[in-house]
Amino acid sequence: MTFSTSSPPAPLLSVRDLSICFDTRHGPLRAVDGITFDLAPGEILGMVGESGAGKSLTGTAITGLLERPGRIDRGEIHFEGQRIDTLGAEEMRRLRGRKIGAIFQDPLTSLNPLMTVGQQLVQTIRTHMPLSREAARKRAISFLEEVGIPAPEARIDQYPHQFSGGMRQRVVIALALCAEPSLVIADEPTTALDVSIQAQILDLLKRMCRDHGAAVILVTHDMGVIAETADRVAVMYSGRVVEIGPVEKVVRDPHHPYTTGLMQSIPRVGSGAERLTQIDGAMPRLTALPDGCAFHPRCPRAFAECSRSKPASLPVEGGHVACHLYQGEPA
Amino acid sequence: MTMTDASQPEPLVSVRGLSKTFDLSAPFLNRLIERKGMQHLRAVDGLDIEIPRGKTFSLVGESGCGKSTVAKLVVGLHVATAGEVRFDGTDLTALPAAERGTFRKRIQMIFQDPYASLNPRWRVRDIIAEPLRSFGITNSRAEEREEVGRLLEMVGLSAQDGEKFPHQFSGGQRQRISIARAISSRPEFLVCDEPTSALDVSVQSQVLNLMRDLQDELGLTYLFISHDLAVVDFMSDYVGVMYLGRLVEAGPAERIFSAPEHPYTRLLMDTVPDIAMGRRDRAPVTGEVPNPINPPPGCSFNPRCPLANARCRESAPELIARAGGTVVACHAVAEGRADLTGTAPAGIVGRDEPTACRGAA
């Protein structure tokens, strides 16, 4: 099963049948269950889903930051042709920052409060690039300027608490990109920000990654953010990718009943709706996953087969859908 | 501000000149030694709103604009610095503490975080029965049990769920429990502070639908606080947009959403990520909410406003009545300088100010 379309250049990142398991007293819990996708160089892939769907865990596994008791129990992750899920901690640490950048939700906790912004940038640059202290500082200033920090020569010597929330997230973006990585994992980068700031940061993220040729995995629960930013989107539910495809296709013409329900339940300005479409029930807990398709107890179109077997992900109109409704369709 | 016709009956809730100032000054001795002055934060500054019976009034704005402070002032969790909150004709701010009890029963609140607002050591039936007991609504244990079961079924849970503890429920179910508790004293007025922002979208729509159903069924009046414009559009009859403690625009929801006039309202409308719009290029909006401790002189929006001129930097605009029943506080709108052809003025520019004291958001 491959998700690459019409033999494009080799994928930058290739995730194959990735499963993440948590060992607990009550036995192993599978939080991510066999997900497969490719990411082309420079592409922005959105990962959307509700809390607990496994989207952040997938990002964590790719960056090699998965902590015990979580572990990858099946599958492979290939990055620039190299298998990275089996790398040791030290090799992974060198890859992170240099080749894979990360942006997290809360800009305050992802910056060191005891170091100036400049010290953190210079340290990151010098860890990954053979530059002198002065050259690294020059590079740091130019990055701060690029992310829209006014008066970067002065602000480089300030501490994170002296920056506002939006400005801090700009610094985090500069930090993630200053060693020119080819992949950036952005986990809910705008969730902690106000709406009017959110738009600025998304624009900046898009522009910076385009200018520096970095591909992005954008993890978010907000379909609006995905629709405006991503090239392709993977919709996750209970640890599986239920639908993946080009954003316009998935947003306008979703196939999976969960995606359809999700799109319809989002309130829109000016819709004038009397009621919102709702998906009854809630996502099942990992301890009580139903048999067959995990969505079938909430699915308006479920039939007998749905409670018996897990649907495989099959190609449907430029994307892939894991739903028994589409299992008959010729590939 | 009048948003209701003269022919309509008196609004259930009417807020006049409501202000709240927080004293952020250092202790007296520190001020003396460090030669620092007093420091005040005007969280809410002269707010006027009216909510007709059975309607929903929403306050929208970004974090720090004072919308949650208004919610707390209205239910009496904060004491107002100035102004009055009239509920059914009685000014609650002037009421002696002993007489507030009867109003507490009629005014209830739903909080944002359903994980923090339910006591984890109580069974759900006790959580919901607490208002029943304290207001003496039920007379016997059997009656109480029956009422709790009825309330749980009203919010879409089952009567047996009363035996469980909050941790056995998902976020959406917990918010249903908060709603059941809030409506148990049979209130007329609910203050809802971001009731769905901690929930996932598919669950959010369930809770919003439930809140509208309950409003129709019980004739509730809502003060709804949210930063999410799409949610506000779905819920509201009237909308008030707040910026740095002041109302900048208010009026009937359909009017505010179809023809926003204040540059800040237009900015907000334009920045909402919209799944239908696709990958459009947004109007480049820059600048951030200034530090409320040192608001800019004049109109507090002027550093970010593309229409600002000398007058905007000197004097703060008052709310003026506009066509369509809205009120707007903007010199540019008053003078007819605001161009309303586009949605948002392209290229809203502003100062990126170092907001040193904003702290963790």
What letter string, H or E per element, gives the SSE order of chain A? EEEHEEHEHHHHEHEHEEHHEE
- Spatial strand arrangement across the major sheet of chain A: 6-7-8-3-9-10-12-11
Count of all domains of chain A: 1
Radius of gyration of chain B: 22 Å
Number of strands of chain B: 12
Tell me the CATH architecture of the largest domain in chain B.
3-Layer(aba) Sandwich
The low-confidence parts of chain A are none
- Discrete helix count of chain A: 10
Net shape of chain A: globular
Explain how this protein is built:
The complex is a heterodimer of chains A (331) and B (361). Chain A has ten helices and twelve strands. With 331 residues, chain A is an alpha/beta fold. Chain A has one domain (41-56, 88-266, 281-325): 3-Layer(aba) Sandwich (Rossmann fold). In chain A, helix 3 crosses helix 4 (133-146) and helix 4 crosses helix 6 (165-177). The N and C termini of chain A lie close together (11 Å). Chain B is an alpha/beta fold and 361 residues long. Chain B folds into two domains: 13-258, P-loop containing nucleotide triphosphate hydrolases (Rossmann fold, 3-Layer(aba) Sandwich); 260-272 and 282-356, no CATH class. Helices cover 32% and strands 19% of the residues of chain B. Chain B is built from twelve helices and twelve strands. Chain B has helices at 28-34, 67-75, 97-106, 124-134, 141-154, 171-184, 201-218, 229-235, 253-258, 263-271, 310-314, 331-335; strands spanning 13-23, 40-51, 56-60, 82-87, 90-91, 107-110, 189-193, 221-226, 238-243, 246-252, 320-321, 327-328. In chain B, the strands form two sheets. An eight-stranded mixed beta sheet of chain B has the order 6-7-8-3-9-10-12-11, sandwiched between helices. A four-stranded antiparallel beta sheet of chain B has the order 2-1-4-5, with helices on one face. In chain B, helix 7 links the parallel strand 7 (189-193) and strand 8. The relative contact order of chain B is 0.13.
Layout of strands and helices, then pairs:
The complex is a heterodimer of chains A (331) and B (361).
Chain A: E1 13-24, E2 27-39, E3 44-48, H1 55-63, E4 70-79, E5 82-83, H2 89-98, E6 100-103, H3 117-128, H4 133-146, H5 152-155, H6 165-177, E7 183-187, H7 195-211, E8 215-220, H8 223-229, E9 232-237, E10 240-246, H9 247-252, H10 257-265, E11 314-316, E12 319-321
Helix pairs in contact in A: 3-4, 4-6, 6-7
Chain B: E1 13-23, H1 28-34, E2 40-51, E3 56-60, H2 67-75, E4 82-87, E5 90-91, H3 97-106, E6 107-110, H4 124-134, H5 141-154, H6 171-184, E7 189-193, H7 201-218, E8 221-226, H8 229-235, E9 238-243, E10 246-252, H9 253-258, H10 263-271, H11 310-314, E11 320-321, E12 327-328, H12 331-335
Parallel strand pairs in B: 3-8, 3-9, 6-7, 7-8
Antiparallel strand pairs in B: 1-2, 1-4, 4-5, 9-10, 10-12, 11-12
Helix pairs in contact in B: 4-5, 4-6, 5-6, 6-7
